[in-house]
Amino acid sequence: MKSLRARLTVWFGAGLVLVLVVFVVFTQRLLEAELHDKSWQRNYPDHPDWRLHGSYSESEVQDILANSWKPR
């Protein structure tokens, strides 16, 4: 039978990995939801009646999410 120290180390490591996976998945889903809901507005000082409204397209959201995984 394995020692108590080895079993505790395995349980702690597995728990840590599980918590990290849940955190990363939750953060990724939250970022995706925020990007889908986010809209922007740009005003033009030279033309006060002009306002440009927009939001991120699905391909832009996927590009942003893909770039969040890349190391800098």
Mean pLDDT across the residues is 87
* Gyration radius, in Å: 22 Å
Classify the secondary structure makeup into a structural class: alpha+beta
Strand segment count: 2
Tally of individual helices? 2
Notable characteristics:
72 residues; rod-shaped
In a few lines, what is going on in this structure?
The protein is built from two helices and two strands; from the N terminus they run H-E-E-H. It is α+β, with helices and mostly antiparallel strands.
Tell me what the structure shows:
With 72 residues, the chain is an alpha+beta fold. It contains two helices and two strands; from the N terminus they run H-E-E-H. The protein has helices spanning 4-37, 58-69; strands spanning 39-44, 47-55. Strands 1-2 form a two-stranded antiparallel ribbon. Strand 1 (39-44) and strand 2 (47-55) form a beta hairpin. Helix 1 (4-37) packs antiparallel against helix 2 (58-69). The longest helix is centred in the N-terminal third of the chain and has 34 residues, at 4-37. It is rod-shaped. It starts with a helix and ends with a helix.
Helix-strand layout with pairing:
Blueprint: H1 4-37, E1 39-44, E2 47-55, H2 58-69
Antiparallel strand pairs: 1-2
Helix pairs in contact: 1-2
